[in-house]
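Usage example:
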Amino acid sequence: MVGGGRGAFIGAVHRIAAQMDGKIELVCGAFSSTPHKSKESGKDLLLPSDRVYGRYRKMFRKEAKLPEGERMDFVSIVTPNNMHYPIAMAALDAGFHVVCDKPMTMTLAEAKNLERKVKSTKLLFCLTHNYTGNPMVKEARRLVVGGKLGKVRRVVVEYPQGWLATRLETSGQKQAAWRTNPKRAGATCCMGDIGSHCENLTEYITGSEIRELCADLTIFVKGRLLDDDGSVLIRLKNGTRGILWASQIAVGEENGLNIRVYGEKGALEWHQQEPNTLIVHWTNKPTEVRRTSTPFVGKEAAANTRLPAGHPEGYLEAFANIYNNFAQALTNVLEGRKVRETDYDYPNVHDGVRGMAFLDAVVNSARSKEKWVKVPN
Amino acid sequence: MVGGGRGAFIGAVHRIAAQMDGKIELVCGAFSSTPHKSKESGKDLLLPSDRVYGRYRKMFRKEAKLPEGERMDFVSIVTPNNMHYPIAMAALDAGFHVVCDKPMTMTLAEAKNLERKVKSTKLLFCLTHNYTGNPMVKEARRLVVGGKLGKVRRVVVEYPQGWLATRLETSGQKQAAWRTNPKRAGATCCMGDIGSHCENLTEYITGSEIRELCADLTIFVKGRLLDDDGSVLIRLKNGTRGILWASQIAVGEENGLNIRVYGEKGALEWHQQEPNTLIVHWTNKPTEVRRTSTPFVGKEAAANTRLPAGHPEGYLEAFANIYNNFAQALTNVLEGRKVRETDYDYPNVHDGVRGMAFLDAVVNSARSKEKWVKVPN
Amino acid sequence: MVGGGRGAFIGAVHRIAAQMDGKIELVCGAFSSTPHKSKESGKDLLLPSDRVYGRYRKMFRKEAKLPEGERMDFVSIVTPNNMHYPIAMAALDAGFHVVCDKPMTMTLAEAKNLERKVKSTKLLFCLTHNYTGNPMVKEARRLVVGGKLGKVRRVVVEYPQGWLATRLETSGQKQAAWRTNPKRAGATCCMGDIGSHCENLTEYITGSEIRELCADLTIFVKGRLLDDDGSVLIRLKNGTRGILWASQIAVGEENGLNIRVYGEKGALEWHQQEPNTLIVHWTNKPTEVRRTSTPFVGKEAAANTRLPAGHPEGYLEAFANIYNNFAQALTNVLEGRKVRETDYDYPNVHDGVRGMAFLDAVVNSARSKEKWVKVPN
Amino acid sequence: MVGGGRGAFIGAVHRIAAQMDGKIELVCGAFSSTPHKSKESGKDLLLPSDRVYGRYRKMFRKEAKLPEGERMDFVSIVTPNNMHYPIAMAALDAGFHVVCDKPMTMTLAEAKNLERKVKSTKLLFCLTHNYTGNPMVKEARRLVVGGKLGKVRRVVVEYPQGWLATRLETSGQKQAAWRTNPKRAGATCCMGDIGSHCENLTEYITGSEIRELCADLTIFVKGRLLDDDGSVLIRLKNGTRGILWASQIAVGEENGLNIRVYGEKGALEWHQQEPNTLIVHWTNKPTEVRRTSTPFVGKEAAANTRLPAGHPEGYLEAFANIYNNFAQALTNVLEGRKVRETDYDYPNVHDGVRGMAFLDAVVNSARSKEKWVKVPN
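Running the assembly step on the lines above writes:
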C-alpha cells in the first residue's frame, strides 16, 4: 500500500475492504511521504518493521527482490490525486499489478500514458470506483445493458454532499485541505472527487459513453480555489440525454449519490445511501422493489453479495467487491492463466481514461461560451 | 366557467376545488366550444339551462346584464392554452374578475398585454399554479424568504411524468392531443405544461427570479411535434444556481414534482406526491421532518390547512387553497374594500408573465448555440 | 345534519366530504344541543334560518312534513358517541335514512336494537368508517378476499396517535373532553375512538371476523378515566392470528393507522398517512408498489378515485367516497328501485354491530384473568 | 472457532466480523462435528492443518498446552443451539474466554449454570446479540436510558421474516433444518431464533426488564414441530407496556427487526434494514432524523462507527462492533488489567440468562390459559 497512514480516511477503507473476504493480506507499505510517519503507521498495522518503507520507490525496489510468495503481489495507491500517476507508473515499471484510487491522474494526457503503460506491461490495473461494486448497481446494469428497459432516453445522476459548505480546509481537516488544493487535487475539486463517480456510474449502468456536455461549475465558498458545486447537461452516444450534478455545499446531504435511468419500457432508481434497494418501473406492470440477495435479481448481483436478504450490506462490502473481483483476476494471473482484464467486473485503466476525459471536458465547458463541448475520445 | 365540459380533466378539478370551502358556487358556464356539448355538460352539473351558454362571449354579455348578487362574480378559464388569452381579455373587458389556468397565454407578448389589461381594469386575476397552494410549500417559502436557511446557493426542481412515453395523442386521448398540438398548446409541450410549474414553484419559494438559463429540449417520441422532455441549467437573480428539468417520457413517474433548496445554513426538500411533509436540513442540528398541521409550522401553512395532522390533504385541497385565497380578495372587493392583489397569497397576472418569459427563454435557448440565454424582464 | 356546530371537527369533514362530488347538498341541520349555537352555526353555513333547528326531534318532525324534493333525504349524525343511538332511532322512526359516525352506539345492546330497527324500517344506514373509503384499501380487500394472497395467516393493524399524551381534556379542548368522558364516549376512549377503525379495517380487508381476543388496556395519563392505549391479540374466524393496537399517547405519531396482512402466497401493507400506496409482496416475484389511479389496480379502487396517478387524494376524498357510495344507494331508493344495502360499498349497520361487539369483548378482556375472550356474535 | 464449517451461514459472518478491525485473527478451529469436514473447512480458511481439529474438546486440550501468544485467546461458538452449552462449559473449564451465538442455551437451567460458571472462572463471556452493535441502537439507548424521552410508556418491537413460509426444512436447507428441529433448536423456533433478539433489543434500549407477558405462538406450516410465528403482550419493570412479535412466515419480509419506543416527552423508531437512521419524535419540536456519523449523535454511537456519514454501515459492521468491544475487554485482560465485564458494551452471560428466561416464559404462556405469566428472575 502507498499512502493511507495515520489520519487518512480512504487508506483504512481499502485495508478493510481488501481483507474482508480473506483473500488479500496487507504485507508491506509506504504509508506516508514522511518516513517517520510511515513507520508509525506500519506499527499501528502490526506489520514487521522491515516491510514498512519510507519511500514508495524503495518499496518497489526491495519488494521486487523478495522471493515469489513472500513479496507483495500488487500495490494499492491511496494517496491524494497528484501522486496516483507517478506511483502507478513506477509500480508498473517495477512489475507490480496496481489498484489505484480515483480520479486516476491529474490530466487526461497522464491518463492516456498510463493506459499505454498498462497495455505494454500486460499487468492488471484496477481503479476503485467503489460504488459500482454495489450488487444493486450490477442489477441495474444487467437490466439496462440487457435491454430490459428498452432504449434508454434519460438519465439523471446526482451526488450531493454538504461537508464543504464552509471553508473547512482552513481548519486543519486534511481531507478538505488536499481536495481543495489545485496542486494535489487537479483542475477540479467537486467534479473530480465526486462528479467522477457520477460519470463512472452512468457509463457502467448504461454501457454507453457521455459524448458531449454543458457544464456550470461554481465556487460558492469564498476563498476556495476550486469548484465546490457543478451542474452538467449530458448527451450520451446511444442518444440518452440527461443531467449530472454534484455538490459539496448541499447542506444536510451526507453522501447522496443516486441515479435514475428512464428507458422506453422501464426505468430504475438507485440510491447509494439505501444501496440494497433498486426501484424498477415498468410500462406494463406495477413498480417493483428489487432487493439484494432475493431470488429476483440476476447472477451479477448475487455474485457480489455475502449475506441473506435484509442483512444490509453497505459501503465497505461494495468496496470489498471491487477488491474481490480484482483478486479473481489476480489469482488467475498468479496461477499462470491467461487473463483478459475486461472479462472481470472491476473498473480498469480505460475507465480511468474515460473519467479524465469527462473531467477535461467539464472544466473546458465551464470556461466556454459554447453550449456543447465534446468529451475527447 | 369557460371550458371543462364532459371528458375534460381540469374542469372537474376546478369545480371541486372552488366549492370545497363553501364560499364559491358554480352559477353558469360555457363548457365547450360545441354549444350542444356545453348544454349537456351544464345538465350534468345540475345548472339551470338558461345559465348554460354555447359561447363564452354570449355568457359574458348576458351575465353582465343580470342583477348583482345573481350574476356570476368571476370567470374560471379552464380551456386549452390557446383560448386563455382571448377569453381572459374578453372577461376583463366585460368587467369580470378572472381565474385562469396556466400557462397564462401562448406568447410572452400576449402575457404582457394581459398584464396591462388587468392593471387598467383593476380587476382581480388569479392564475392557478395550484402546487403553491400546498401548506408545506408555504412553509418552505416562509423558511427561505424569511432567511432561515441563509443565503440560497443551489436549487434543484424536477417534474417527471411518464404518461406521454408513447404516442398517446394518436389514440384519442384528449389531454394528450391538445397538449402536443402546437396550435393549442403553444411553442412547447412538456416545458409549458409542467416545466412552468417548476419555474413558478422555484420563484415562489425562493422569492427570487430566474435570470438566465441554458436549455436542452428533446422530442423522444417519433412523430410528436413538441418537446416531451427538457433539462435546464438556471441562474437566479440572488446568485442561486441550479437545475430545472421536466419530462413526460419518464416511465413509471406519475406526477413527481419536487424541489430541493440549499442555503448556507439549511436546506429543504418537498415532494408533491407526499405533500404534507417538508424535510428540513440544518448545519447545526439534525434533519427535521416538518408536517402539515403540526404546531411546528408557520401561520402561512396553518392558514391553508383544514384537518389535524396525519389526515392527508392532497391535490384538491391545495387547489382549493388557491381558490380560497382568491375568494378572500374577491369578498373584500365585492364588499367594497380596497384590495392590493399582491397582499393575497395566490398567483397573479405577473406570475403569468414570469412564466411566459421563462418559456420564451427556454424555447430560444433550446435552439441556440449560445450557452446562456437571458430570461426577458 | 345533527351535530357539527361551531368548534366541532368532524362536522366540517362530513360537510366537505358529502358535497365533494356535487351529489349531496346540506339543506338543514340541528347543529348543537344549544339552540342558539345551532342557529349561529346554520348562519355560518349560509342555510336559511327556517331550516336550522334547535332540537333534532323538531327537525325530524318538521322536515318530514315538507314536500318530497324539498325535505331532507337523509340525516347525518356527527355528535359525540352517546347521542348516536337516540338520534339514529328517532331518525329511522321519522322515516329518514341515516349516515352516522362511529362507534355506532354506547353499548352492544343498543347496536343490536339499532340493527333491528334498520331492518324493520328498510331504510338505509351508513356508518362512516371513513378509512375503508380509500382506494388502496379497496385494492387490498380485492387482493385478499379474491384469494390472491392465498390463505391469510397473520394480520397486524395499528393506530398510533400522540395527541392525548398529556391531559389535554382539562385544557378546554372539546375533542379531548368528550372522548375521555365515559358518559359521552362510552366504556372506552382509545379503543372506541380509533381501535374500532382497526377492527373495521381488518374485517373489511380480510372478509373475516375477529372471533376471540386478549386485550391489555392502559390509562397512562394520570386522572384520566378511560383507556388511552391498548394492545390486543386477535384470532379470526378464518384462522388468521394477529395483533391490533391503538394508542393516543404515542408521542410524535399523528394519525398512523396502518395494516399489514400476510398470506401464504403474498402479503400487503397500507399506511393511512400515505394512502395512495399499497405495498404488495409475493413469494414468486419482487415486491410491488401499487398506486392509486394506475392501470395496475382493480375496478373497486378505480371507482373510488377522482384524479390521475400522482395527484394525491387524501382523507377528505376517502371520506367523500363513503358518502358517494351511499349516495348511489340512496339515489336508487329515491328513484324507486329496490336496493340491497350489502351490494353497496359502504359500512352499514351490521358493521356497527361488529364494532360494538369488538369493543364489548375488548373491555371485558381487559378486566379478565382469562387469556381469551370471545367476541359475541 | 467451534462450528461454522462449509455450508454454514453464521460462521462466515463471525469470521468477517471478528477480523474487520484488524484486532482479531482466526488461529484454529473445530469447524464441524464431522472431523473430515472440519479439516476441509480449515483448508478453505488457509489455516495450518495442525490447528484444525476434529473435536472441540481436543482443540481445547491441545490449544491450552500451546505457549501464550501462540495459543488461541478465546473461543467463538457458532454451532446450532444445542451445542452452545456443552462447548461453552468445556471452553471455560479449559480456561478460555468465550464468544457464543444466541440463544445461549437450550434451557433456563443451563443458562443459570453457565452464568455461575462464568462467575466462578472469572473469564469473559460475550453473547453475539449482534443487532445491539448498531450505532443507532446505541444512540437509542442513550436517549432512553438517559431520560431524554421521559418516562417510557409503550414499546413495540417486531421481527418479521418470510423465509420459512413454506416447509423449507424438508428441502435440504441446513439453516431451516436445524432451526425447526426441537433437538437442535430447543423448545421454540421463531421465538428462540429471532424473538430473542426482540427481547434483547428491548431490554438494551430501555434499560429495563420484561416482567410478565402473554404469548400466542403458532405453527402455520403443516408438519412443522416448532412455532414459526408468535405475538406477545409484554409488561416491563418500569411500567412500560407493549407488544413483541416475530414471524418466519411473513411473506415478503426479509429481516425486518424494528423497534418503536414511546416516552412522555419523546419517542423513537429504528429499523434494522435501514440501520443508520434513527427517527426521534418530540413533544416540543419537529421530528428528527438522526444519522450515523453525524455530529448530532452521542459518543456511544460514534465509538461504534467507522465511516463518514452517508457511507452505509450494515450488518457485518454492527456484528464487528460486538467483537470489537469484546476485544477491548480481552486486550485489557490479556495485558493484565482488571476488567469488570459490565463496563464494556457487549452482551454478556447475564443477557443470555435474560433471553432464556424470556423464552421460558413465552413457551409456558403459549400453553397456559392464564393471561399473564411472569418472566422468572
